[in-house]
Each structure stands twice: as structure tokens, then as C-alpha cells.
Amino acid sequence: MLLTIRPGRLSAMSRLRTTLAVLSVLCALPAQARAPKLTLFISVDALGSDLLLRNRPRLTGGLGRLLDTGAYYPYARYAHAKARTAPGHATLVTGANPWRHGIVDNEIQDRATGQVLQVYVDPKHPVLEAVTPPASDTSPANLLAETLADRLRMATQGRGKVVALSFKARAAIPLAGRTGQAWWFDGASGQMVTSTWYAKSVPAWVQALNARKLADASFTKTWELLRPREEYVGEDDRATEPDAYGMGRAFPHSLRNGLTAPGPQSYKAFAVSPFSHDLLVQAAKAALEGEGLGKDGVPDMLAVSFSGTDETFHAFGPYSWEMQDSLLRLDQALGELITAAERAAGGRANLLIALSADHGGAEIPEAWAAAGVPAARINPVEVAKALAKELRTKFGVEVTVGILALDVYLGGKALESGQVDGVAVRRAAAAWLAKQPFAVTAVARDDLDLAQDTAGLIAPLRRGYYPERSGDVLFMAKPFQVVTDYPRGTNHAVPYSYESQVPVVFSGRGVKPGTYFQEIDPVDVAPTVSALLEMGMPASAEGKPRAEALTGR
């Protein structure tokens, strides 16, 4: 029997199917468009791309899983010159370079007094319920650009919560922005603290956390290797490594250093050890519960900057067994942190994770030199003395010279009174610096905009320059020249790949997993997170959302 369907009947059935299909799509849209309940923003201090890639095969915990299942960019390179903690974190969360957000370095020099200040200094907002060290970081008043935290708070009309945690104030403050909460480790008391900018009293969850005295509890612990010795690459006891805080150069490391009780000296060793990772994870878990993060339909953010890796890097170098073990233990700690965040958000489908780093870092220069690399340790104090002598000889007056990384600050009565031509002095200083064996180039601030871009290194200096805070003369060191006034260990401050190249990972709701080998700029991190949160970008952002991480192409 042949079944015949009339044209009118077919049209009605087709319309019905179309209507049902449209309704199905419309019903699905709210669930797809809804932003994640919780964003976990992770920064790993001093985690350069090279460091991560060398150790990746051994990472099987939280960090390893992020790399395997997220949108992973091995090669993100900062476009500004100074590879430092404060500007790096500010760039990650504003999507802007220092010429816009104003955070040019960890420290700046006050031209009026010659005093070196931490960049987030704010005497009007002291540390809450603790002693405030002079000229120390306490508030975001000097941060000129809107952050992810600020944008989230504005987008949700103050309903979304933001909590930022770190061992360093200069990391926690930019992560919290102006409108979130920032908590950091106080090296005098061994507790997590904040300033009066962020709180008028210490909330119950922080009081309970501090009552556990986790830093004190680690005083009797010994930092042992996590894995068998044969799994570590290179030598443990290297002659170029220092005896950091009395911990010794080789494993195991005691945190006691001959002390009879925990205190400021033992806290320094604690900060270097991976036990500091565990404290931040416990603080994060306390914040998740205490603030109820991820518990409703309004997006919240928890930002955690792990500083222990940077402390280990400075003391022992990026190729040390200590750095290898610190990463292995961070891998474990991140697994615990991510599990806690998933639980708080009500499942992985409600969680977005972004991970990056503020900078990489150089090997201990003496170790490089022993391997045949043209490396040297450059003491900025000695360079400043030599430059001051040169200017005194040339101009017949005293000019004070202070060097902070790549910035040279000039001062003194002769300059301030106009007794000598400031432009001439600055140009003479730049000319002398450019001729030094450790330098590629140098430029006076007066010539920065029009200077010939030697080897493409003037452009990073421009992006990192903010007139009120940067130096009078900027210089660029050659590769493998480590600028530091410490006689041991190592440092970071230049835009070469071993210091400026960092990983970026996005994972969770709305992310297309994969490994993306194109080089990106960390200014893209904040815009990409903004897109995944279905909100506008921070006001001064220069970057753009990484479309391939959202669409897979």
C-alpha cells in the first residue's frame, strides 16, 4: 500500500520539526552562555617556559593534568623589558603593559628623597593588625589600570567575590585589584595579612587559618626529596649554589638553622621550601569555604600566586635539584587546590582555570660561565659608583646614581638646581653605559621615543617605561649578564627568552583543549578570561581574546 502525504501536510510537519529544533536550541542557550561559577587564576612565580618544558615529563599531578587537558601555550612572551614580579602580575590581570598600568618594577626610587620604595607603597593604608615595614607594599593605589578582579566586580555590580592570596604583597595586590581582597604572608609574624585598603577587621576564616600557625608547624620539618635521587637531573651539591638561610646546599634541608624557636629567620627558609605551597593551598581552601566562593550563580574568582618557586629559583637556580623538587611538589599542591575549587563550584563544569607566570629566570651566572656560556654577574652598586665618578669628572659636580635593574636614577643638588644641564647629564650617562662590556645599548629618557631600536630592544624598554616612576636613563644588558647586588644565587630582569617567556594555560568551561605553539603575549590572558566570563575586558587592555582557545581554530 502506497502512503501519500499531501504537500500541506508535509509543510505542517516540517514547520513543527523546525519549531521544535529552534525551541531546543533556545532552551540550551542559557546553560551554554552562563559564565562559570568560579574562576581559579593561578600564577607560578618564576615559572619560565624552559623550566616547565624541561620538567614536564615528570608532572603527573594538577599541573601536569592542566597541561594535558587545557588549552596550553608553551610560548607566551612578555613585550616589556623588565621580567619582574610586580609588573608581570599587573600585566597578566590588566591585559596592559607597564606604560599603561604604571607598575614598572618591584621597587622604584623616589626622586625627591632618593629613597627606594616598593612599588605598591601607600603610607595611608598600613598593614592591618601587624607592623608595617617602612616603604612596603600595602595597596593598589599606584596601579593605574583596571584589573580582571575590578572588571568582575563591576560586571556583577559588586555581587561577585574576588580573593587573592600570595606569599608576596606585590603579587596579591594586583591580583585583587582595587575592589577584591588581597592577603599575603607576613615574614615577621608568620601569618596571612592584608592592609586597611582591603579590610577593616580580619574575617573569621583568616583568624582560624592564622590560628593553625602553619609556618611555625613546619619549623621542625626537613625538606626531603619527593622522588628517588636517581630521578633528578644534574648534581645536587653544586659549588655555585649558596647555603641559603643556613639550609645547606644539598638535600635534606633543615628549616631550623640552629634556631630554638620559629620566627622571622625560619620564615625565610620556610618561604624557600615547598611547605609554602601547602600553606597557600590551605589558605585557598579556607577562602573558598569562608567566603562561599562558587556557591551561587554569580561568578567569583580565587587568585593564587605561588611564590615559593621564585624563592627557590633565586637561592638555588633553575637547574637545581631544589627547583626540580619544588615543581614536583607544586604539581601535587595544584592537584589538591583544583580538587577543592571543583568541589566549591559544584563540579568541573562550573570551573574555569587560568594559569601563567610573571617571568622566568637566569641560571646562576657562575654555573653558566663554568659551562662555557659568556655569562657574568653585574653588580649595580659598583656600576653606579663608576658612573657617578664619570659624571663628576665630565661635569665637575656631584651627581647621585641609583640603579634598579635596568633603570638608572640620577639626582643631586647640581641637577635639581639647574647648575648643570639635565639633558646633557642624562645623555652622557647613557653614552657611558652603552660602552660598558655588559650592555647592548642605553638611552636617556629624553631620547626614548625617537631612539634607534637597537636589536629590537628599545621597544621593550618603551613598553616598560612610565615617566613618574622609571629611571632617567634606561639600559639593556647583554644576554646571560645577571644584574644583581647579591654575591650568590641568581636574578631576573631582562627580556630574553629564558626570562620573558612563560606558559599560559586555560582549562575548564568553554575552553577548547589543545597545545598551541604560536607565540602569544601575556596581555592576552585577561581578555581571554574576560571572554570566557562573558564580560567586557579590563579598561586599558592591549591584548585580545585567544580565539583558538575558545573555538579550537
Question: What are the SSEs and their pairings?
Answer:
Layout: H1 7-33, E1 38-44, H2 49-55, H3 62-69, E2 71-77, H4 85-94, H5 98-101, E3 107-109, E4 116-118, H6 148-155, E5 162-166, H7 169-176, E6 181-186, E7 191-193, H8 204-211, H9 214-217, E8 222-223, E9 253-254, H10 264-272, H11 275-290, E10 300-306, H12 308-316, H13 321-345, E11 351-356, H14 365-370, E12 376-378, H15 380-395, E13 400-404, E14 407-411, H16 413-417, H17 422-434, E15 439-444, H18 458-463, E16 473-477, E17 481-483, H19 497-500, E18 501-508, E19 514-515, H20 525-532, H21 547-551
Parallel strand pairs: 1-10, 1-11, 2-19, 5-6, 5-10, 12-17
Antiparallel strand pairs: 2-18, 3-4, 6-7, 8-9, 11-18, 13-14, 14-16, 15-16
Helix pairs in contact: 3-13, 4-7, 8-11, 11-13, 12-13, 15-17
Explain this structure.
The protein is α/β, with parallel strands linked by helices. The chain has helices spanning 7-33, 49-55, 62-69, 85-94, 98-101, 148-155, 169-176, 204-211, 214-217, 264-272, 275-290, 308-316, 321-345, 365-370, 380-395, 413-417, 422-434, 458-463, 497-500, 525-532, 547-551; strands at 38-44, 71-77, 107-109, 116-118, 162-166, 181-186, 191-193, 222-223, 253-254, 300-306, 351-356, 376-378, 400-404, 407-411, 439-444, 473-477, 481-483, 501-508, 514-515. The strands form 5 sheets. It has a 9-stranded mixed β-sheet with strand order 7-6-5-10-1-11-18-2-19, with helices on both faces. β13 (400-404) and β14 (407-411) form a beta hairpin. α11 (275-290) runs parallel beside α13. The chain is globular, with a radius of gyration of 26 Å. 53% of the residues are buried.
